[in-house]
Amino acid sequence: MIKQGLEIKQTQKLSRLQIQTIKLIELPVQELEQRVRAELEENPVLDDTPDPESEDPQDKDISLDEIGEDDYIPAYKTRVSNWGKDPRPEYNTFSVRQSFTQSLMDQLGYRNLDKHQYDIAAFIIGSLDEDGYLRRDIESLVDDLAFRANIETDADEVESMLKIIQEFDPAGVGARDLRECLLLQLKTCKQTPEVVNAERILEEEFQEFSNRHFQKIMSRLGISEDELKAATARIVKLNPSPGGQIDDSYSDQAQQIVPDFILEDNDGQLSFSMPRFNIPELRVNQKYADMLMSSKNSSDRAQKEAVSFVKQKLDSAKWFVEALKQRQNTLKKTMQAILDFQYDYFLTGDETSLKPMVLKDIAEITGFDISTISRVVNSKYIETHFGILPLKYFFSEGMENKEGEEVSTRELKKVLQECVDAEDKKKPLTDEQLVEEMSKRGYKVARRTIAKYRGMLGIPLARWRKEL
Known about the structure:
By secondary structure, the protein is α+β, with helices and mostly antiparallel strands. The protein is built from 20 helices and 10 strands. Helix 18 (431-440) crosses helix 19 (447-456).
């Protein structure tokens, strides 16, 4: 027997305006400028030039309210005046580093190689990990080149191409292990006594150096304590990660960071502005509005088609302008909530003043969804008197101190760094001892948390921090 029944489901469908707004909210200011200019090119109804017949084109809106509801949606403001009348300053930008892989490929292009050699070298570059190391053995690369790239070669040729890549910047790239990475960097340095000794240590006594067996090194190499100190100081300045974990999506040539907000300090009273930079101020072209008004009752077919086209473009312009306004209001309200929440930090720039803050906190203050706050925060920056910072920087989880007060994880990291900086480098603190030091300063942190934060801060294990 088949049972029949009626089930009612409630679904929510986003309106065209909501979809448009969501897309615009996600854009940082420089991409927003490109989006606005693209809309200007695609929609002839929109204009960014002042009305020549207007005495004050900044203040005059073109009202389409006279058009009936059947013809067009009423109460449409045709100009976006979200940014005020401040002058348009130049972009205050800083560049993101060029893609690591692209940088190597650019350098490869300057080498005098035939296509076969170039393809092998390019394959090797593509095989490097995010730290700039080649973690594959040469024979495996030969096999991969044959099966994956249909390139016949041998170990000697692959090795010779790897040697070329190892001459590229940054120094140390293409190394197969830490020892080779450090030696590659030393070879690019002026051969001073400390550099020569550093090379000898890495070539002959790398294991002893890793284990901090300094007396054995001095005895075997016949060098003094001062010479060992100088060589060690030179080694620790080298970069163990030449790739630097650079995000391949960024490039100096293709992207600049432009602040969406500028912090302003007026005698201790903080506020922010949202400069429009080169974003055009939109208005509806008067002649199209006049065309619609004069021809809406026409019986001519061609004229009706023209009116229909104009109405369609006016409708599209309405949603775009309204979405721009909503984007501006959403960003403004969100930034104000962040500023109020982290007011003490914005006053001083002191990281210990940052309060634990998650997306939910700002969502509750603004009344927006967490997803909306996430879109606002993503790829947005604020210029402060202590640097240009991503909005993501102000969000972090929290932990309790001995008094039961919640402190941010960023504060804990800063205190941990201070403990390491203050330690006796001849007897560096172990993770267990760092737990005790943090406890003395009022922070309850587990050993595994210390290890986690130490790794995030790039602080090596105690035995690697030991000095003579």
